[in-house]
Design goal:
By secondary structure, the protein is mainly alpha-helical. The protein has ten helices and no strands. Helices cover about 65% and strands about 0% of the residues. The protein is globular.
Length: about 260
């Protein structure tokens, strides 16, 4: 129980950091050296104001100084990241006092959790603003390549191949359509996803994202909220496709293995 609490709290801290990165990626400011402040009164927040979940519960999601109400999305991301870390840890380690099995299980759990963090950053930012900051994809891709090469040194070529395929797949569409089918941010995102899932699973991720896109578009068309020629952001769909490959068992994708 103690282990579960600390894992969840660490994930919530990562979620709090992610919220700051999302905000500063849009409005400017360094994620490394910048200080958190209220977006309304611009008062610098103290350590007591930045305790994930707890501070918002105590202050009822309001600034302690000007009483401006904070968006519900901050706590939602902290809770979501806490749950993601908890789920990844439980999957690989169980909930004993120490991680069961070898230390590799712990690193595999953290690998999965941080991959989900970068996918969540892409999902949220692209869904909100219709673009993907290069910093998310480049940092996520480097983290993915480093983690996968460290954990699976014999498979490093397959991860590089998958990253190259993901970038080439969306790069070709960008060139052929002159930026009408996909954006330039999708090229780096394709590389990041490939670096995370490896070869041939990058194909499953991309295919799954297009299936999700079709379901999403036709659902909105039935509800008369979108037309066939309307555009939808690719980032959230590809992030969901990659997350599905990382989380779900391979038996969930029988169509791919039959074709492969």
């Amino acid at each position: 129980m103690i282990t579960a609490f600390f894992v969840f709290f660490f994930g919530a801290c990562v979620g709090s950091f992610s919220s700051a990165w999302l905000y500063r990626a849009r409005h400017g400011g360094s994620i490394v050296t910048g200080r958190s402040e209220c977006t309304s009164c611009h008062k610098r927040l103290q350590a007591i104001d930045l305790i994930p979940i707890v501070s918002q519960l105590i202050c009822r999601s309001r600034c302690r100084y000007c009483k401006t109400k904070f968006s519900w999305s901050y706590m939602a991301l902290e809770l979501g990241m806490g749950a993601a870390f908890l789920g990844a840890y439980y999957h690989y380690c169980g909930f004993g006092l120490m991680c069961s099995g070898s230390s590799q299980n712990f690193f595999m759990a953290m690998r999965l959790a941080f991959f989900l963090v970068f996918l969540a950053l892409v999902f949220i930012y692209d869904a909100r603003y219709g673009e993907i900051p290069d910093a998310f994809s480049i940092t996520g891709g480097l983290v993915a390549l480093t983690a996968n090469i460290f954990m699976k040194p014999g498979d490093w070529m397959w991860y590089l191949l998958a990253a190259a395929f993901g970038a080439a797949f969306f790069g070709a569409q960008y060139v052929l359509s002159r930026g009408k089918w996909v954006g330039d941010g999708d090229i780096l995102l394709g590389a990041m996803v490939g670096a995370m899932v490896g070869w041939p699973f990058v194909i499953v991720s991309i295919f799954s994202s297009y299936v999700l896109g079709l379901v999403f578009v036709f659902s909105l068309m039935i509800l008369k909220r979108k037309k066939l020629d309307d555009t939808i952001p690719m980032g959230p769909l590809l992030a969901l496709g990659a997350a599905a490959v990382l989380i779900l068992p391979l038996s969930f994708f029988p169509f791919f293995w039959y074709a492969w």
